User: What shape does this take?
Amino acid sequence: MKYMLLINAGAVDGSECTAEDWMTFDKEVKEAGILVSAESLADLVTATAVRVDADGKRTVTDGPFAETREVLGGFYVIDVPDLDVALDWAARCPGARGAGSVVVRPVADFGV
Assistant: This one.
């Protein structure tokens, strides 16, 4: 089953882990044969939010769209047997350390 690991970085400087920690984790998920995809997101100040009202009018807002203590920093999609295994991998992720968190969500299967 596929699970998305949503990596939320804490609002602090992110010093709980190093680039080497991320490279090690990347290597581990690849070598385990469970990696479907993974991406790191650009800095929050590059974000653009789009909203469409009931009349179909689009509103575009540049920059950070919310005051929050956590920022979505990237994701992994892994293919593992069950939620327990996904949770084990999430706990190994450097993004789960310190002020960060990793949200685990199953990927919906619409049978397409």
In short: Residues 19-31 form the longest helix (13 residues). The mean pLDDT is 88. The chain is about 20% helix and 35% strand.
